[in-house]
Amino acid sequence: TVKSHGKNGYEFFDPTMEAKSLERILMENELRKAIEQEHFQIYYQPKIDIVTGKLTGMEALVRWVHPELGVISPIRFIPIAEETGMIISLGEWILRQACRQNKLWHDQGFPLKVSVNLSARQIYQKDLVDMIKNVLEETGLPPEWLELEITESIFVKLEEATAILQQIRDIGIRISIDDFGTGYSSFSYIKSLPVDTIKIDASFIRDIHHNQESQAIVKAIVTIAQSLNMNVIAEGIELDDQVAALQENGCDLGQGYLFSRPLATDDFDRYLRKDLAQ
Ligand code: C2E
Ligand code: MG
Ligand code: MG
Ligand code: MG
């Protein structure tokens, strides 16, 4: 085995660790370059009124388009962007792209609400509210046509998170809790959260058509949302049976491959025009 006598006096050398950290360093460098060179694309996934089948909005989902490696999933690079802090500049770029594009669609006669995911790290960036205001001003998108998706993890610091979300809502922007039911959700504090929409996590939708517990959970979430005047949306719908089970349990909004996969801008544009023609 190779021995290294580094300045911290470590005597051994684990080749797998070294390989991993090298890959990680390469990945971070690539990601930094990609941010500078804007090698990303925003895909848009339709949000559907599952009763009427009509389009109500779309979620912006980022993809890294690497010149050699092709399309890289956000599951692979968002965590790295978060850990390194690169999510701050990347997140601003994503928000600006999504707002700019949605403004274009508005001007073409498509009044849709775009939802943009925000990392916990972004919530706690100190100039977040000013950054969002600037992006809205710059792009001309009215605030009510923007929604931000956050996860329950931010509520570990409940008071701080609540105060920040309140400032965002005061601008007129909507807030949605993503992946609801998987994190720190507590029915005792949900009533005090400055939130407009609860997005039920895909794990409850996956088996809702044949699992009574998932049905009961969805029903409970819908009941609570209604009593708090919040909207509910289901994510990860792939089957007609799931749509039926959701309707039975009072959930009227949904998103999933059954309706459409996330689409590149041009494809979503075509989708919009088809939807309008229906
Ligand atoms: P998320 O916000 O919960 O987004 C939902 C994910 O489920 C998306 O994966 C979407 O493509 C996928 N999905 C939608 N419908 C279905 C379905 O019917 N079946 C299945 N199996 N999957 C479905 P994606 O695009 O790979 O994004 C993964 C996660 O990466 C997102 O989860 C979000 O946490 C994060 N992410 C994506 N874009 C952004 C972004 O712009 N900013 C930040 N901070 N995070 C992002
Ligand atoms: Mg989301
Ligand atoms: Mg989600
Ligand atoms: Mg998720």
UniProtKB/TrEMBL annotation:
Residues spanning the membrane: none
Superkingdom of this protein's organism: Bacteria
Domain EAL intervals: 24-276
Record-given protein name: EAL domain-containing protein
Residues of the full protein shown: 427 to 704 of 704
